[in-house]
Design a protein that fits this description.
four-stranded parallel beta sheet; 4 helices; alpha/beta; 4 strands; Rossmann fold
Length: 142
């Protein structure tokens, strides 16, 4: 499993689809709070016709990626896009998360619930993110 550079995912006709926003995780509720706000904003912006979007954490917080994938699979979701809320593709996204995804896919396949899971590149690599950060830094330094 490798990180996909393209946001496009090929879906089988009639398949149910969802997205998981994946954050690193922390035991500090103050660190977690902005992710709940972000999820609410995305859901509101996408409206009722948007792709179902959930939040998961790689470690140190709940729901875990595994729990979220299993919940979605149990609800009949057959295609999941994972959008990492990371600044760059470090060790976690290059090694740890792909191993987690592969294990989840194998477990679900063995249980008779195959799910296609697509790992996308981290949002921090998107040009809009770099532009937004640059603008904030420039504003703060003026």
């Amino acid at each position: 499993m490798t990180i996909t550079e393209s946001p496009d995912t090929v879906l089988q006709q009639g398949s149910a689809r969802a997205s998981i926003l994946l954050a690193h995780g922390s035991s500090d509720p103050h660190w977690l709070a902005p992710f709940d706000v972000l999820l609410s904003q995305i859901r509101e912006a996408m409206g009722a016709n948007g792709c179902r979007t959930e939040l998961a954490y790689m470690e140190l917080a709940e729901p875990s990626l595994s729990a979220q994938v299993n919940t979605l699979a149990a609800e009949g979701i057959s295609s999941i896009d994972i959008l990492p809320l990371f600044f760059a593709a470090g060790r976690h996204l290059r090694r740890d998360v792909p191993v987690m995804i592969e294990a989840l896919q194998q477990e679900l396949e063995s249980a008779g619930t195959p799910v296609s899971i697509q790992l996308h590149s981290p949002v921090g690599l998107e040009p809009e993110v770099a532009t937004a950060i640059s603008q904030v830094v420039q504003r703060k330094l003026r």
